[in-house]
Automatic annotation (TrEMBL):
Originating species: Eleginops maclovinus (Patagonian blennie)
Sequence ranges assigned to domain Methionyl/Leucyl tRNA synthetase in this UniProt record: 53-414
Name of the protein in question: Methionine--tRNA ligase, mitochondrial
Alphabetical list of PANTHER family matching this protein: METHIONINE--TRNA LIGASE, MITOCHONDRIAL (PTHR43326:SF1), METHIONYL-TRNA SYNTHETASE (PTHR43326)
Molecular functions (GO terms): ATP binding; methionine-tRNA ligase activity
Enzyme Commission number(s) of this protein: 6.1.1.10
Pfam families (UniProt xref): tRNA-synt_1g (PF09334)
GO annotation terms (biological process): methionyl-tRNA aminoacylation
Family designation: Belongs to the class-I aminoacyl-tRNA synthetase family.
Any one Gene Ontology cellular component term annotated for this protein: mitochondrion
Tree of life domain: Eukaryota
Amino acid sequence: MRTPFLLFTRSCKAIYRLQRSPFFSPVSALCRQQTISVLRNTSTVSCEDDRSYYITTPIFYVNASPHLGHLYSAVIADCLHRYKLLQGFNSKFATGTDEHGLKIQQAAEAAGKDPLIFCTNVSERFKHLFNSCDISYTDYIRTTEQRHHQAVKHFWSVLWNKGFIYKGSYEGWYSTQDESFLTALQVGDAVDSSGNEIKVSLDSGHKVEWMKEENYMFRLSAFRSQVLEWLKGNPRAIQPELFYQTVLQWLQEDLPDLSVSRQRSRLQWGIPVPGDADQTIYVWLDALVNYLTVAGYPDKHNQWWNVAHHIVGKDILKFHALYWPAFLLGAGLPLPQTIYVHSHWTVGGKKMSKSLGNVVDPLERSKKFTTDGMRYFLLRQGVPDSDCDYTDDKVFKLLNSELADSLGGLLNRCTAPALNPAQVYTAFCPQSFPSEQGCRAVVEDYHMLDAVKKLPAVVENHYESMHVYKALEAISACVRQTNGLVEWTVPFEGRALGSDTGVLFTRLENLSMDKQNLYKTKKAKK
Ligand code: ME8
């Protein structure tokens, strides 16, 4: 059962108050599809000007289906991409899937499937989610694609030829879940579900194993001071500030050289090291290069590679803020403009993750709460600096209060035929808002006008620093203030003035004495 409480007069959209039972978005699938294809097509135009913008999400592992956390990164990137398009930028927006590595090899084995078939299947699920949720990506990359293999091999050869990769051996801790090497200080003791004592990553809580292998090493240690210099010279390169400081802190310590290959006997599912068929390229080196592949590396990346911005979750900050800049410096390529970091969605205080099995299905939730509703919720409630606990009830309450009641109510009040018979954008009534003194407007009304006037600049500022929730908060505050004005002026209680121009404000004297007194008392109280 759904209750339409308002109809937009000039568009096909309607806003519904959410009922506790699931319902489908009223926005027509056709409208949405058209919008998306316009957004996608915009960015395929090649342009040499300095108004190019390139935004990426992480590429997601295909060991399991997508969850709400993945959609969150994609919605932030989509939002910034759309914002740049509105500003007239030629924006490229890439997302996709990370399909190589031990973790995927093991997941395919466990499923009894050929790895590529397994990857294709899960990758399609991510794509389907993003298409269903209006993520207007312009490129969807899979690391199993030929173009990516070529880019990775080229990138490797550049690092090798410059002497930044050498043959060596690695002995230490490795977490397959995180596909990450760890130092002894990053490892702690734990007990698994069967009561066995195990070692885990202190950061992720995932199990680690001791490994000893002959492989290729990258001279990460040689890049510590250059990465530090880059960050000191670009204090907004990692945002928010909290994560910038975290990386600066990491850089106070020495960076050990990094193992960038695994023995083929252990890891077959990956790109072979050029010139050494016994070794497979480390999945993180492989994965990070996806950003270059999409940009057109190795031949045609110049337009996009100067203007790259990465959205990442805080779990993969180390890879993007230490390894990636070092790899790029080694290859003689420009560094990303910005790494926007966001925190995590938790459920019952625990990070939503495939391995913990506490994931929220984003497809099912966006059917329940509508796609726009879910997108709004994620952007409005997700705070980059700190984790956010997810509950359905929070979504329900937020959407009903801010979208249905506040925004919907305001629109209803402004567009109701009785108040706005001409169905136009209304002008202010001269008796209410003259420039001279002695008008009916009170100081709060002028504050509201001022807030609305400043809103575009405020929103822009917040978007630039990826504080989308603050932009939405500012918009919501204006909606509340404007609703307040309508409540004081009670246009719905009297006759609208100047029906030819659609002026909103009623004359006070048109109201009953009771209403006039109520209005005056309310004003006096304020
Ligand atoms: O790390 N809350 O892939 P991944 C918010 N393939 N965001 C979350 C989240 C949560 N609970 N869980 C995941 C990988 N994410 C690598 C990336 S990039 C070159 C390679 C989001 O499938 C967030 O963006 O584990 C996080 O960084 C990413 O998904 C990790 O996805």
